[in-house]
Amino acid sequence: MNTTINYYNLNAKKFIENTQNADMHLAQEAFLQLLPGSASILDFGCGSGRDTKYFLEKGYQVAATDGSAELCRLAGSFTGIKVKKMLFQELDEIGVYDGIWACSSILHLPKQELLPVIQKMCIALKDNGVIYTSFKYSNFEGERNGRYFTDFMEDTFREFIKVIPELTVEDQWITLDVRPGRGEEKWLNLILRKNQK
């Protein structure tokens, strides 16, 4: 994970230029329509702050985190809120959020670290809360362009998540990358629901 964080610290401005204006409207609205009007949202690995700002402008309560100090600084400036520098593994809240937005973020964890983090995300959700997350669409796992990636396809993710019975895959869809020049890349988008006790 340190290599990935170093990548973002060194390339934060370039990363923000490539992602801050990416049109994530369809995924954002698919997520928001499942939340109550005054929902509390965690933007978990907020990157440029694009989605945090969108949710804030819609009137939601938003907490934002990122593992990169430089992205925290720049995203905080962009959104107007303090972005907490935190590793995914450090999430320790219980029943706080109506929704957790993890757009292209937790994919940087190796599979053996990813499962405990998703369990922590589940614990941080209120009952009936939802998680949006996305992964590159393939079965690759390893380093790519200076960062670590865990990719998934529909069947491999469903198999992977089976060990967390509190979470159900409520929706999934494939999209093409919305960044300029990246339209040939596919993404797996997922909505997970925490079952009511």
TrEMBL record:
Q: Which UniProt keywords apply?
A: Methyltransferase, Transferase
Tell me a GO biological process for this protein. methylation
Q: Which GO terms describe its molecular function?
A: methyltransferase activity
Q: Which residues form the Methyltransferase domain?
A: 41-129
CDD domains with a match to the protein in the record = AdoMet_MTases (cd02440)
Would you tell me the protein name for this molecule? Class I SAM-dependent methyltransferase
**Organism from which the protein derives:** Blautia ammoniilytica
TM spans (from-to): none
